[in-house]
Sequence to fold (328 residues):
Amino acid sequence: MQQRALGSQGLKVSAIGLGCMGMSEFYGPSDEAESIATIHRAIDLGVNFFDTSDVYGPFTNEVLIGNALRPYRDKVVIATKFGIMREPDGTRRGISGHPDYVRQACDASLKRLGIDTIDLYYQHRIDPNTPIEDTVGAMAELVKAGKVRYLGLSEASADTIRRAHAVHPITALQTEYSLWSRDPEEEIMPTLHELRIGFVPYSPLGRGFLTGRIKSPSDLAPDDWRASSPRFQGKNFQKNLDLVRKVGHIAARKGCTPAQLALAWVLAQDQDLSPIPGTKHLKYLEENVAAEKISFTTNDMLEIDVIAPHGVAAGDRYDAAGMRALNR
Fold:
């Protein structure tokens, strides 16, 4: 697989990474054996960029990823995050970017992952009660101590990105970006270009909706987080299904799946980004990786812009509380 430079500090990753969140939580039942097999197959296919967080599980996803990647440690890039605080039972305690918490969270992640150095360490959500300069200052200390190689932010505003980058070079920003979430194009992506910061789009397949495999709310498992997402409910669901049908028509003409078309579109937006579609199934991993080979004509891109303009999705990305934590 093609390698892409992520940011300007020297980090290179596969053009497509693997989001591992759903292997432990949020998207229905887990199967550890298949999850590990999926991770190992990803490596066979050239994927070297794996994304997790301390909050996934909570805490168990890092253990899974660390165990699965241990034999391949020198061949892979491991990214994890801190900032969203949860109890072992899943109860949320809020968001913290306090320097003491940054140091504590990093040490805990290193232990769960079973590694000496985190390749890319993100602040998962921005703490409104701690100056970003203080948080990134603590993260920079982790780099000096050899515990972290590169720094990242997630769902940060352009102003916060600038302030953070002034303290220590930020290598990557992770934010939702897809055919139905194009907000980063307005201010975030130009800022990243200016500062030479890489972009890691998460949920590039619209949390699975753009694959065309979800045709009714009943297709979601009872414990699937998406059942409570505004975009998967009521009239919003039906309107968003119309977008998926249009994506499917274009995909059929190009001889690919809707998922492949949606992911290839993200890849085509910039050479300085690496999306991290999540899956815990081998067949979907292989489908996603094949999207790297899809190319678009100018007319293709214009047609996609017509069916999926800014703001096309019905409903917010998260509930009200989740939305308040974005773009800080």
Remarks:
- The chain has a mean pLDDT of 96.
- Residues 234-254 form the longest helix (21 residues).
- The two ends are 34 Å apart (CA to CA).
- The first strand starts at residue 3 and ends at 6.
